[in-house]
Structure formats: C-alpha cells, structure tokens
Amino acid sequence: MTEIIFFINQVVISGLVLGCIYALGAIGITLIFGILRFAHFAHSELMTGGAFIAFLLASAFAAWGIVTPIPTGFVVLPIAMVLAAILALGIDKGFYAPLRKRGAKPVTLLIASIGVTLMVQGLIRLFFGAGSYSFFENEPKEIFRIDTSALGSTRPLVITEPQVLMILVTLVSVIALHFFLTRSRLGKAMRAMADNADLAQVSGINTALVVRVTWVIAGALGCMAGTMLALDVTLKPDLAFNIILPIFAAAIVGGLGQAYGAIAGGLLIGFAETLAVFNWTMLFRPLNAILPDWAQLPSTLALVPTEYKLTVAFVILVITLLVRPTGIFKGASS
C-alpha cells in the first residue's frame, strides 16, 4: 500500500494539477484558433503576464496588512483575470486587428504573435528582472498530510492547499464555460463562428463582438492558468514560455477549435508526462523478493528522464497527427 500511496502522490495528484494548467491554457489557444484561425504563440505571455498581475495584487494586499483565509493569489485572481482580459483585448487591438483588416494570412498573424511574445517577455524582464518570485513570501503554504496508516501505508497522502484549490477552481471554470458555450446566445454564436465564420456573418451574428469575447475568455483563463502554475512552483519571466509547446500539443491532440477537446488533451498530456517520468521501481519494488538476481529491477525505471519530460507531449502529438489528424474531438485538421 505504501507504493500505491507514493504513486498517487507522484502521478495522480501531480498529473491532475499539471493537466488542469495545460487544459486552461489550451482552451484559450483553441478558442483563438477556432475563431481567428491562427496559432497564438503569445498565449504563454498572457499566462505569465496574468500571473505577474496577480502577484502585484497579492503583494499589495500583504502591504496593506490584509489577511485572507486562503492563499491571497486565489483571492485576487478574479481582479487579475479582468485586468488580463483587458490586456488581451489591447494586444489584439494594437497588433492583430490591424493585420486582419489588411487581410493578413494566418501565418503572418502567427509570426506577429511570436514578436508579441518576445516583446511582452522583454517588458516583464525590464520591470521585474530575471529573478524568481513566490506568492508565499508573506504567507505560509499549507501542506495537507493525510495519514494512511489505517490502510497499511507508512507514507502520508500529500497535497498542498493551492493544489486543492486549483483543482476546484478549474472544475468550476470548466462547468461555467460549458454552460456559457451551450446555453448563452453569445456562446452559441462563438460555436457558429468557429464552424463557419462567413456563414455566421451573413446570418447576422456580430462577429466583432464574438472576437472580443474570445480574447476576454482567452485572457482570463490564461491568467488563471499562469497564476495557478506560479502558486504551485515559482513565478519567473519565462513561467509559461517553457510549457507553451505542450499546451499547443494538448490543443491539437484534443482537436483544434474544440474547447472540450482542449480539456481532454490537457489532462491527457499532464498525466502522460507524470507517468513517463515516474520511477516505476518504487511501485514494483516488492517484486524483487521473488525475482532472481539477474532479473532484479534497477534503482531507476522511468520511461524518460525528468529533464526530457517535454518530449512526451511531442510523441503523443506525432501519434495523434498520424492516426487522427483532427484530434480526439474532431477539430480543424492539424
């Protein structure tokens, strides 16, 4: 049972947390692709920028002496999401909208998004430096250690308070997004425009409003994903830049343009990465008692070393493109 608890701590909890972050990031990417038909590489900077906005708000709360019952990063998250949504609208109005008016092709918008990535990341480094920050400099990070001795285990089940909250917040956000896309008139308009933008326009749908709402949702969810990632690890200028490719892989695996596919793809990539770097010897160690000496399990039995964890997403991506190019939920062809 000790080995199973270790597996839950290292794979199930870690995979779920990482999957939630990937899923929220992938939703923004897939919505932008579905509506605007281009791959937005600067989405990583929306995540990082949103996390820094949340950090500034949390620092202000600490300076004002405001004490909250839960981590301050979650308390200020709604305000940070609003500001990140405004930032996303500003980036679209300043860079992408003028290009769309000139009839720029998707590849042009993609290249422009890479330029926006470098620009925003440079601004973050200019104002915050290249160091790392923590949301828990002024407050403790609570760690729950659940005793499992009744199950015959010597290891506790370990999960932090931010991890519990980020799983709950992700669940609420996904449910809210589901009802928005399926029940609201604007959500149905977004789905219609994603299916056929020209037909949606001639049908009387306000496509300009749909584009604005898309950026609002992408910016808000990007801020949420970036803040949750910073709460789980540390905040730094390249916080989300290092995981943007797995997030893109999650969006493609789930099906480009499909919000539900992005959620499934994010969880799939998250669990796949944690399973790949898990040391399986820890789980199967009891087998050494019955195995001959020449067949003893090695001390480390991981599918890939931890430093190559990101390659797992690309392996899954390549397999998906070969077997099912439209992704799990049959999105736009990749």
UniProtKB/TrEMBL annotation:
Alphabetized InterPro entries for the sequence: ABC_transp_permease, BCAA_transport_permease
Family of the protein in this entry: Belongs to the binding-protein-dependent transport system permease family. LivHM subfamily.
Coiled-coil regions, chain positions: none
CDD domains per UniProt: TM_PBP1_LivH_like
Domain of life: Bacteria
Keywords linked to the UniProt accession: Amino-acid transport, Cell inner membrane, Cell membrane, Membrane, Transmembrane, Transmembrane helix, Transport
GO terms assigned for molecular function: L-isoleucine transmembrane transporter activity; L-leucine transmembrane transporter activity; L-phenylalanine transmembrane transporter activity; L-valine transmembrane transporter activity
A GO cellular component entry from the record: plasma membrane
Membrane topology: Multi-pass membrane protein
Location of the protein in the cell: Cell membrane
Transmembrane segments: 12-36, 48-67, 73-95, 107-128, 163-181, 209-233, 239-256, 263-282, 302-323
Protein name: Branched-chain amino acid ABC transporter permease
Record flagged with keyword Lipid metabolism: no
Species annotation: Devosia ureilytica
Taxonomic lineage: Bacteria, Pseudomonadati, Pseudomonadota, Alphaproteobacteria, Hyphomicrobiales
GO terms (BP aspect): D-alanine transmembrane transport; L-alanine transport; L-isoleucine import across plasma membrane
